[in-house]
Write a structure and sequence with these properties.
- The structure is a single chain.
- The protein has 137 residues and is mainly alpha-helical.
- It has 4 helices and 3 strands; from the N terminus they run H-E-E-H-H-E-H.
- It has one domain.
- The protein has helices at 4-17, 49-65, 69-94, 106-123, and strands spanning 22-26, 31-34, 103-104.
- Helix 1 (4-17) runs antiparallel to helix 2, helix 1 packs antiparallel against helix 4 and helix 2 runs antiparallel to helix 3 (69-94).
- It is elongated, with a radius of gyration of 18 Å.
């Protein structure tokens, strides 16, 4: 695919931008939680997943740009980790705890879709392949 690298990088940037939007609303304590601010109370701290998303997203973006086979293989691995982490975040931010069910917002689900798009784009690398029989002399 001709534009797979560009689409993958745009998906990673969009995934990080979605961290600034509200992910879930917890009605009992009247708190809106995002990827940047995950502290609900002293007992419930969901962390700051935007930090890990930014680090892995930057690594994936650099690997999208490097036109080597090893970079594409590592990128496949890192985008798969990012996708599994985004699924974990969906379960963490939308799961019920002690009878309290948060209201999950659309950016939480959209960031999982963006990580899936980045993972699919890592399957489609843009590499120049030499025909069989041609060797460097």
């Amino acid at each position: 695919m001709k534009h797979a690298q560009t689409i993958g990088i745009v998906a990673l940037v969009a995934m990080f931008a979605l961290c600034f939007l509200p992910w879930s609303y917890i009605p009992v304590v009247d708190v809106t939680v995002s990827g940047i601010q995950g502290k609900v109370s002293e007992q419930l701290n969901l962390g700051k997943p935007a930090k890990l998303i930014a680090i892995i997203g930057f690594i994936c973006s650099v690997l999208f740009v490097i036109p080597k086979v090893w970079a594409k293989r590592i990128n496949f691995f890192t985008t798969t980790i990012l996708f599994s982490y985004s699924l974990y975040l969906v379960m963490l931010f939308s799961g019920c705890r002690e009878g309290i069910c948060p209201d999950a917002k659309w950016p939480l689900y959209l960031q999982s879709v963006m990580s899936f798009v980045a993972m699919v784009m890592s399957f489609l690398p843009k590499l120049k392949v030499r025909p069989i029989g041609e060797f460097d002399a």
